[in-house]
Amino acid sequence: MLSLTDSIRISSPFSDTRLTFLSHSGNKTNRRQPTFVRNRPRISCPQRKNICRCSRTEQPQRRKHRPAKTDDEKGIDPVGFLSKYGITHKDFAQFLRERYKSLKDLKDEILTRHFSLKELSSGYELLGMHRNMQHRVDFLEWAPGARYCALIGDFNGWSTTDNCAREGHFGHDDYGYWFIILEDKLRQGEEPDKLYFQQYNYADDYDKGDTGITVEEIFKKANDEYWEPGEDRFIKSRYEAAAKLYEEMFGPNGPQTEGELEEMPDAATRYKAWKEQHKNDPESNLPSYDVIDNGKEYDIFNIIGDPESFKKFRMKQPPIAYWLETKKGRKGWLQKYMPALPHGSKYRMYFNTPNGPLERVPAWATFVIPEQALAVHWEPPPEYAYKWKNKQPVRPKSLRIYECHVGISGQEPKVSSFNDFISKVLPHIKEAGYNAVQIIGVVEHKDYFTVGYRVTNFYAVSSRYGTPDDFKRLVDEAHGLGLLVFLEIVHSYAAADEMVGLSLFDGTNDCYFHTGKRGHHKFWGTRMFKYGDPDVLHFLLSNLNWWVEEYHVDGFHFHSLSSMLYTHNGFASFTGDMDEYCNQYVDKEALLYLILANEILHALHPNVITIAEDATLYPGLCDPTSQGGLGFDFFANLSASEMWLALLENTPDHEWCMSKIVSTLVGDRQNTDKMLLYAENHNQSISGGRSFAEILIGNSSGRSSISQESLLRGCSLHKMIRLITSTIGGHAYLNFMGNEFGHPKRVEFPMSSNNFSFSLANRRWDLLENDVHYQLFAFDKDMMDLDKNGRLLSRGLANIHHVNDTTMVISYLRGPDLFVFNFHPVNSYERYTIGVEEAGEYHVALNTDEKKYGGRGLLGHDQNVQRTISRRADGMRFCLEVPLPSRSAQVYKLTRILRA
Asked: Where is the Glycosyl hydrolase family 13 catalytic domain (predicted)?
């Protein structure tokens, strides 16, 4: 639901995609600008209520009456999700209502500068470097604090004066946008085009304009074939009609100067005088109508013309075919001009500011070399530009996400490339049974050791992995394998770098970020965005749309929302009190940005998926924006991985609390179906911690240096933790690269503290040849098949009916599948009673204790099938008596239903 001011229409892909909105003031509804677009699904949005007032004498009854909602207001409730969850906190409800009003005011402010929210989120179409069809390159950048702007680079010898913005509207406007034109250079011996508006089609090598027909011949052809006799007369003689009108008014010898014209009486006086002069004329000589002026500020005139002429005029199409004859192709352009900015040129911006001159990498640059603080113009010839081959996969009902980092994805101690990832990692992901790839660290960042979270250039893929076309190929190949591609996007903060980043971009401290302490993260040394500024919104919202339009990504994982939602950056103790979500520390502007981001993304790209990472679980994360929510599709349960890590490192096995495990994994059951669960993601491996495999089985790549008992314990818990985490929650599960086969080492990026070593900045794929790691991988693959083949995660929520802290057994039903876990480190149960709802035969579909998964194989073949007993247990009508070896889990499928 895109709760825009009134309505949205999205045009066809063959024209500029637009969203048309209505603004409302009082009882009048005024359309901002008429637009002709193709019919698309209409999304209704709220209008302001029209309030009618009458006196007491006119009111038959004194009672409160709520005005009926219009069609566009139906379904809009700023506090709708509160009643859904039974939340009765008055202050938070009032906060949501005020936030909704602020959202409407923000949209009104935006629409005073932008035609639509679609235009707001498409800034990349104008800003940055763009080829213009009139043999030139246009550059547009926002730097309100600068006094002078120029482009410098190897194309002009790094001159600060050759290519600068002009004074006035076409160089520097009132909003701080600088416009620079780079004219293509005429080749020696070539003459300038006779038409100053001559256009060139850069996409095709050959076009009609390359046939050698002259402009004079084209215009003559248009006159002979298109214009009818006399139809273009006004174009040739612009003053003919005015001269005839003047002669009718003043005669053939009328006044020729203003002095001779003298003072003219008003129109009404002249009309009365004419009427008096012709009062005795026959009626046939008089006009059949009079113009009556009632003193209004406007008049409407109905002009009656020849119907046949009007019909003929409407049927005639514009002479576009002749105009296309003047349009030349790429061959014609290359023959006549040299590009003002060749492909691969390096450049920067030069500013003169109140604090002196400075140089910056453009904020909208699409390819950057951060180590050299240089932008690279990326405009490959059409024959070398990447051409998409595969369609984006259909959005699945459940997500099995494989999280990865391109740079550390190789086995060699180096920074891996996009091409390495395509050839080595993508096939493994497909084989492992995942249906989505989530990539971190793709957006350009200066320092490799920051993993990619201190972003410097938001529109550029990291050059250390390859070119923009290389990343397009990665996405395309993933789509060809049926894998969605998610991008971890960091809009919660930005790198503090200046020359290559956005900090102090135009020499001031209030361009993209807040001033003072609020503009700096309290602990991370990063800059905090000023989300309430329309130009910052323009930048960030366009950035989201850019990655979808340019690189065909299928969704976003919004990193560290708590850093942006609170002025304390989330570093405060949360008690769960609702006041903490609506007090003075909550950044309402950041909330409005997230609402706009979800509304616009889902309106423009209905299949896009957005995932929220918020440690505070802000209320309404995944509820519709029309009901007061933020509009995300999923939210990450961060507490689950923290719980597992705490249990493994600090709690003996026999003291594990089953109730705590279950309550942490399922949360408070609000929006559990929208929950993304993971046992461990990149945080456990990258942020100074150890992977679960390193804790459980150490750094050993074999059995020789670890006892058999410890190895069995570690592998058993590794499998059980993943199985319960992936199946007890919602419709999404995530795993970090390598953890599916128990990668035994953490990740540590090269930095000064480790002498810039790459020894831990890689993945040991060779471990898959080892028995232990291959067995863990085989189990993870079969676990993915539960959803891949049985659509497990897309079913309803788990029915958790047995949680016993004494026996350390957990059991739940999900659809027809029964899951039973025995976490006890010692006790095994030969006939443990578990309740089920359906009577029948249950077959073991997955057993963590099987030998092929590195288990003991204690269940015999005759124990793989269990038949229900007609006895109530766990609140169910029937029960099973199943064998449960210690530290093992089984998945039973109902294969045969028995009728009573």
From this structure: 415-764
CB atoms within 10 A of CB 684: 24
SS3 376: strand
* Ordered DSSP codes for 58-116: G-SS----PPPPPTTTTT--TTHHHHHHT---HHHHHHHHHHHHHHHHHHHHHHTTSS-
349 SS3 class: strand
How far, CA to CA in Å, does 109 sit from each of 105, 120, 142, 197, 321?
Answer: 6, 12, 19, 35, 41
658-666 and 708-727 helices, crossing angle to 10°: 40
- Which residues are marked as active site? 613
**How confident is the model over 516-543, as a mean pLDDT?**
94
Distance, in Å, from the CA atom of 256 to the CA atom of 472, rounded to the nearest integer, reads: 69
Residue type, 206: Y
Cβ atoms 635, 622 nearer than 8 A: yes
- Of 387, 364, 391, nearest to 375 by C-alpha is 364
Instruction: Using the CB atoms, write b or e for 497-511: b if 16+ within 10 Å.
Output: bbbbbbbbbbbebeb
Alpha helix positions (H), 728-868: 771-790
3-state secondary structure of 824: coil
List all residues 6 or more positions away from 770 whose beta carbon is below 8 Å from its beta carbon: 701, 702
Please state, in angstroms and rounded to a whole number, the distance separating the CA atoms of residues 522 and 560: 14
Quote the CA–CA distance of 489 and 597 in Å, as a whole number: 12
pLDDT tens profile 700-725: 554 456 888 999 999 999 999 999 99
Check: CB of residue 834 under 8 Å from CB of residue 889: no
C-alpha distance across the termini of the chain, in Å: 48
At residue 558, φ and ψ (nearest 5 deg) are -80, 115
Distance of alpha carbon 518 from alpha carbon 529, whole angstroms: 9
**42: how many CB neighbours lie within 10 A of its CB?**
11
The residue written with tokens 């508006």 in the block is 197
Length of the chain: 900
CB within 8 Å of 882: residues ≥ 6 apart: 820, 831, 832, 834, 866, 890, 892
In the numeric block, the tokens 């939340």 are attached to 87
Among 117, 7, 124, CA closest to 593: 117
To the nearest 10°, report the CA torsion of 426, 428, 432, 437: -20
Question: Computed from CA positions of residues 298, 299, 300, 302, in that sequence, does the dihedral angle turn out positive or negative?
Answer: negative
Top-confidence residue, 297 or 34: 297
Higher pLDDT, 291 or 738: 738
Q: Which residues pair with 876 in a beta bridge?
A: 873
Check residue 287 and give its pLDDT.
62
How many CB atoms within 10 Å of residue 525?
Answer: 11
Instruction: Spell out the alpha helix ranges (H) of 200-282.
Output: 215-225, 233-236, 240-250, 258-261, 267-277
Q: Which pair of tokens denotes residue 321?
A: 């075919």
Beta strands 455-461 and 399-405 are: unpaired
Return the closest-CA partner of residue 608 out of 531, 556, 536. Answer: 556
The phi and psi torsions of 453 (rounded to 5 degrees) equal -85, -20
- Long-range CB pairs of 684-688 (<8 Å, 24+ gap) are 684/641, 684/645, 684/736, 685/736, 685/738, 685/739, 685/743, 685/746, 685/747, 686/405, 686/451, 686/746, 686/747, 686/749, 688/746
The answer, yes or no, to whether residue 860 has pLDDT greater than 60, is yes
Residues 6+ apart with CB under 8 A from 5: 21, 22, 23, 24, 45, 46, 47, 104, 107, 108, 111
The model carries a pTM of 0.83
pLDDT digits (tens, 9 = 90+) for 650-687: 999 999 999 999 999 998 777 888 999 999 887 766 76
Q: From residue 818, how far is each of 299, 416, 834, 836, 853 by CA, in Å? A: 78, 42, 9, 8, 20
